[in-house]
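Anyone up for a design puzzle?
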């Protein structure tokens, strides 16, 4: 069975990562698995273990970090969040593509551990469009918006760490572009060579035994 791929999607706040990822998941139900994070915060009513999060203790989380079991992690509002390595590798070995929608800092952590992943940076058409999107939320003050824009500039400067840049000028078009990237990546020789080596090995054994 062919292995799946790790697909990492990042981009500045307000660029529409979640919306594009949801569109891809809707189109490819069953093919893409959206990665489940691990967290030390308490389970909320209605949340399901292994579906919403993998819930764990602070001690267990720190042990996972120290033993290289986390692809990336961070701390937010007093709680730890991160991506468990074993879960990602198991999903890939089952032949499914797994999707990580994470910030730039997390993506760089992941790339250090799994450079064979496909790293996609979602960009706005321009900074003016990004400011309009953030402003359109109606939830942030002018000061917060300026801070988000400054952070966006810093993140865009790190785009060189990624394999692909996709402009999100329209959600459906952005999803189309990412689907083409994934299709192309599945056909790369470095991803399929092991399967062909197995076939060639079987052929070699057959020819040796039937001379």
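Challenge accepted. My sequence:
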């Amino acid at each position: 069975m062919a292995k799946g791929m790790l697909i990492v999607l990042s981009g500045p706040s307000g660029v529409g990562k979640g919306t594009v990822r949801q569109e891809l998941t809707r189109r490819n139900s069953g093919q893409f698995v959206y990665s489940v994070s691990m967290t030390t915060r308490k389970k909320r009513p209605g949340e399901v273990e292994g579906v919403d999060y993998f819930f764990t203790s602070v001690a267990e989380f720190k042990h996972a970090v120290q033993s290289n079991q986390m692809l990336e992690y961070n701390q937010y509002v007093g709680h730890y969040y991160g991506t468990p390595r074993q879960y990602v590798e198991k999903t890939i070995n089952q032949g499914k593509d797994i999707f990580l929608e994470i910030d730039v800092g997390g993506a760089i952590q992941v790339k250090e551990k799994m450079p064979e992943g496909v790293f996609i940076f979602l960009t706005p058409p321009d900074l003016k469009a990004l400011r309009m999107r953030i402003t359109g939320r109606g939830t942030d003050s002018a000061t917060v918006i300026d801070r988000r824009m400054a952070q966006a500039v810093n993140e865009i400067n790190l785009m060189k760490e990624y394999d692909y840049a996709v402009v999100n000028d329209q959600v459906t078009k952005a999803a189309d572009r990412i689907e083409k990237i994934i299709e192309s990546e599945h056909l790369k020789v470095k991803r399929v060579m092991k399967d062909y080596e197995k076939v060639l090995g079987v052929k070699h054994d057959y020819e040796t035994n039937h001379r």
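A detail worth pointing out: The mean pLDDT is 89.
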